[in-house]
Model the fold of this input.
Amino acid sequence: MYRSHILICGGTGCTSSGSARILQTFQDELTRYGLNEEVKIVKTGCFGLCAKGPVVIVYPEGAFYAHVRAEDVKEIVEEHLLKGRIVRHLLYEETAQEDNIKSLDQTDFYKKQKRIALRNCGVINPEDINEYIAYDGYQALGKVLTEMTPDDVIDVLKRSGLRGRGGAGFPTGLKWSFAKASEADQKYVCCNADEGDPGAFMDRSVLEGDPHAVIEAMAIAGYAIGATQGYIYVRAEYPIAVKRLTIAIGQARELGLLGKDILGSGFDFDLDVRLGAGAFVCGEETALMTSIEGHRGEPRPRPPFPAVKGLFGKPSILNNVETYANIPQIILKGSEWFASMGTEKSKGTKVFALGGKINNTGLVEVPMGTTLREIIEEIGGGIPNGKKFKAAQTGGPSGGCIPASLIDTEIDYDNLLAIGSMMGSGGLIVMDEDNCMVDIAKFFLEFTVDESCGKCTPCRVGTKRLYEMLDKITKGEGTLEDLDKMEQLCLYIKDNALCGLGQTAPNPVLSTLRYFRKEYEAHVIDKRCPAKVCKQLVHYVVVPNKCRGCTLCTRHCPVGAISGEVKKPHSIDLEKCIKCGACIDQCKFNAIVKE
Amino acid sequence: MANTKSAVPFSGTKIQEEQLRQVIQDYKGQPGALMPVLQKAQEIYGYLPIEVQEIISLEMDIPLEEIYGVVTFYSQFNLNPKGKNRISVCLGTACYVKGSGDIFERLSEKLGIKSGGCTPDGKFSLDACRCIGACGLAPVITINDEVYGRLTVDDIDMILQKYGA
Done:
């Protein structure tokens, strides 16, 4: 028995800011004070509140220490663990109350969340299968193998209303029933962990924090459709996730939860991890399968659908990490429980990776139907520096921008589609008044141009032409005619591209055109970038009554564009200025502005 | 196939070649073995010059053009060696809206190289990368395996100094 537990976040965010060193220091300090027998250190997955990382939580008090540095560890050990006094000045501000501490689930960030896919993240040690088992792990697999027929399993999933969390929202139970109906000597279960949307990291966090949930669900899927082999296709950019998955698979094999004759039921199932190699298109199901086969990851036309002819030409299913993470809970708690959450057509919860211009960047899981306002203002803690919310981008390069006027939209698959965006895998990037929407559209198009596999013309050439038009507009060379042409081209690409990447690639352009047309027009007609982002349309000028003539800027201007006498207002030669911004960074009187 | 040959002469050792042959032996016969073999080969050599692809082609009995096709399709496979210090700037959405584009430009300017380039002394290479999933720390760059987060343009000089720029 331990009297205290120290939970240290070992997710990518906290690891990047030094949580490994903090863990080492805790170990050293505990050894120094001979507390090893009384206090246990647990390296967990992501707690979700990445903005406050590195995060350390000490139980039983539940003290949430934020932005912990290795130098702080000694104080926490000496004060909190030795003397029983919580180190108040290191606590996450919101939890530090006068005479006690606020419990985490009462904080603004956690209060409205409902954790199903993330339920074990930040709670258990993902590298120890026993901790997962202690939290009902592998019970669902046991139940399925001993009490349920494959049809029962599929039926539960169908009635739960679970839809694919990878973005498109296809009903999971239906997908499985197609694969079950296909007759073959071999079938495959695949997991899409090729989380390519820039700005999305929920799948990574599930794999890092609770890898066994995915493994268990894949075994359940194998039983349901009649497959004995599974593949998890993970991005190579996620080394921690790959390591923990590999450990988890090894431990599951050791306990006989993977391999031959699982739990004495006669059912065989095993898993392999395959690494991606940096191709966004491999998130598309047929491309992903082609890549596992060892080829260029190009998509192929459907039908035949993977449920009929998938990996290695055999019937296969592919589900996303978060989809799988929900399944053991649905099996254990029943379809009614799951279907009681969410909206009419979107059941359960959704994990969002909250990023961009928001105070509480991190991972949140909320019931479907939660409004954007609740996520941004309450859970996310609003926009930093008193700036105004301008738009939220969901669905990555396949999605769109939701303007401030639609902030009360209830988020589910259908509502997002209706307003020209999509759920996507769950990246939610918040933008403020300093972000230019044309620039954002151009950013996404640059991405798709880069990532288009080149197989079909609408995507290969179409996205390139779109990008060129956007580039023209951001340089102030666009015309109103370009806007119409762009819109037409977008619709053409949507209708004609071969796979999901191309069909959704125009969405960032279409949605910004729809909601921020005025901003496009400002670039085209007035040759002005209202957010002052597009370099060619921005000028640097000196505000005469603020300038003290200190000459600091003239000394830092790399091209000698600033001139003026000492103690008199300076001026900038717009011909020479390269708009590097060095003068703004240097000026102590805010006397240089962009306009 | 204009740039099949790397600008840097191939200098693989016998030991590396033995390691590679062992990897191929381990994977041979498995379905879809080419990708993992290429990944291991890149771990061994640091990149995948045509000489390495030739060995894989012969050993695995896969036509060289098919291997070249796979290598050039995926952005993580390199035909050219990287610098001693590999700098990647995350241009994922979360980092981009927080100004990673400016950070990339400053680095490019400082080092005098573009994306995918390597300084003539072989010290630094610079890449723009997609999301590394550390969005909570945006904007981030990685140098080798070290992550630097919550950066501003002004931090760049100090970080480069650490690596002897």
In short: The two ends of chain B are 34 Å apart (CA to CA). The beta strands of chain B are 85-90, 124-129, 141-143, 146-148.
